[in-house]
């Protein structure tokens, strides 16, 4: 359940205001979209997007059940169907790690962001080094076993651990964002650096 705290922190860190426009990429079950809708209010605009139709449907239905009218689009983050300079904030939570061409996706996020707007990237990252041995045991032994026992899906949890290891470190992702064109890029380490929130601006 820690992810809920991380996502709320991400929304607060975005600085999005009433009436703002937000693009939630790889939004899946709509956790971030729901929080952003609270922030922007009735005069704002939140787009929930995901490349996976099944996940997108879950998120859309959840918001509709809560009485929230949300705009939804199934799309690839590397080819966003939105105009230039449109959104005040673009967010992606635990989705960049699964994108094949992260550089292309980041450049698309920059393209649809208005000048002065910010991008928020919440993702698993490189844990504090003294905890690395314990974290490896948890990730490669405990987590897959729990996945097999609870969710009857060991392989997905093994993939989770493996994908985290090949994802760029905090500094590497910061450089990638700079290279894509973002400025004033910074990151905030959470949960002993197991998770990091990156923020960058378009000027």
How would you characterize the largest beta sheet? 7 strands, mixed
What is the number of helical segments per DSSP (H or I, 4+ residues)? 7
How much is the radius of gyration in Å? 17 Å
How large a portion of the residues is in β-strands, by DSSP E?
Answer: 15-25%
SSE topology string: HEHEHEEHEHHHEE
Q: Could you give the distance between the termini?
A: 35 Å
Q: What is the mean pLDDT?
A: 93
Strand order of the largest sheet: 3-2-1-4-5-7-6
Helical coverage, percent range: 40-55%
* Alpha-beta classification: alpha/beta
Count of beta strands: 7
**Poorly predicted segments:** none
Q: What is the approximate shape?
A: globular
Characterise the protein shown here.
It is a single chain. The chain is of the alpha/beta class and about 200 residues long. The protein has helices at about 1-15, 30-40, 55-65, 100-110, 130-150, 155-165, 170-180, and strands at about 20-25, 45-50, 70-75, 85-95, 115-125, 185-190, 195-200. It has a seven-stranded mixed beta sheet, with helices on both faces. α2 (about 30-40) links the parallel β1 (about 20-25) and β2 (about 45-50). It is globular. The termini are far apart.
What is the topology?
Elements: H1 2-14, E1 21-25, H2 31-40, E2 45-50, H3 53-65, E3 71-74, E4 87-93, H4 102-112, E5 113-124, H5 132-151, H6 154-166, H7 170-180, E6 183-190, E7 195-201
Parallel strand pairs: 1-2, 1-4, 2-3, 4-5
Antiparallel strand pairs: 5-7, 6-7
Helix pairs in contact: 1-2, 4-7, 5-6
List keywords for this structure.
203 residues; alpha/beta; 7-stranded mixed β-sheet
């Amino acid at each position: 359940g820690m992810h809920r705290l991380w996502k709320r922190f991400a929304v607060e860190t975005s600085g999005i205001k009433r009436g703002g426009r937000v693009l939630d990429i790889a939004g899946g079950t709509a956790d971030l979209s729901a929080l952003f809708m609270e922030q922007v209010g009735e005069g704002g605009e939140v787009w929930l997007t995901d490349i996976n139709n099944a996940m997108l449907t879950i998120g859309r239905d959840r918001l509709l059940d809560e009485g929230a009218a949300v705009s939804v689009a199934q799309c690839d983050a590397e080819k966003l169907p939105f105009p230039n300079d449109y959104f005040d904030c673009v967010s992606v939570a635990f989705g960049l790690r699964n994108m094949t061409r992260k550089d292309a996706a980041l450049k698309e996020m920059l393209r649809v962001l208005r000048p002065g707007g910010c991008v928020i990237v919440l993702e698993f990252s490189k844990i504090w080094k003294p905890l690395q041995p314990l974290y490896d045991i948890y990730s490669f032994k405990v987590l897959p076993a729990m996945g097999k026992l609870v969710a009857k899906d060991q392989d997905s949890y093994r993939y989770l651990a493996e994908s985290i290891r090949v994802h760029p470190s905090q500094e590497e992702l910061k450089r990638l964002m700079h290279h894509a064109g973002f400025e004033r890029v910074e990151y905030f380490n959470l949960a002993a650096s197991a998770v990091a929130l990156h923020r960058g601006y378009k000027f």
